[in-house]
Amino acid sequence: MEEILRTEDVKRAFPVAGGDFWALKGISITVPKNSLTILKGRSGSGKTTLLNIIGALDAPTSGKVFFDGKDISNASDKERELLRRREIGFIFQSVALIPVMSAYENVEYALRLAGYKGDYKERVMDCLKLVGLSKRASHMPQELSGGEQQRVAIARAIAHKPKIIFADEPTGELDSATSLSVIGIFKDLIKKEGITFVMTTHDPKLMGYGDMVYEILDGEVISTTDNTEGRNE
Fold this sequence. Notes:
The chain is an alpha/beta fold. The chain has a single domain, classed as P-loop containing nucleotide triphosphate hydrolases (Rossmann fold, 3-Layer(aba) Sandwich), CATH 3.40.50. It contains 6 helices and 11 strands. It has helices at 47-54, 77-87, 103-114, 120-130, 146-158, 176-193; strands spanning 3-16, 19-27, 30-32, 36-40, 62-67, 70-71, 88-92, 164-168, 196-201, 212-217, 220-226. The strands form 2 sheets. Strands 7-8-9-4-10-11 form a 6-stranded mixed β-sheet, sandwiched between helices. Helix 3 packs across helix 4 (120-130) and helix 4 crosses helix 5 (146-158). The longest helix has 18 residues, at 176-193. It is globular and about 50 Å long. The relative contact order is 0.20.
């Protein structure tokens, strides 16, 4: 499969009393385009540190990160900011919707931040329809269930048509049935929007839904599962 992202021997150190703490100790992964890649690991394994680096929120101490064929390992803060604004989307466990804005306004705000050039209203409603919330557009976050709030967050993340979306424990606060529905939405968007998803989780029930699954422990990849064969053209 064609790749959209790749890391080569990525390491990340954080200064602590008495020396450096190596959160990542040489991570090499490949993320196939138009797929769901899962980073599996318990709290403290390094998976969120890795997500921050491949999501252009942080830079590696050493090693290389290639996004869409371009080496972004040593990108400037401004270059990483533009990359995040134009080509990357994020979904967080805490949802982080703006409480004084309706579902529609939350998604529209993402378009404004990204400098979207198309028709705002059409794109917002298309995104809400894709996640099954077109009839809830005028509702405020507090009027929505946890699962509905997460679906608004997904609509917001896809609004500016990013190439890839990074989701940090997006189902961590949801029940099993709602978690599976979120994964179903991810899979549907891969087909309909041509988006690539990378998500972190420690939920073993979700592993079988990943096209690629990397298990991370103590800053290293300890197992790789490739389920892509037969799933895509």
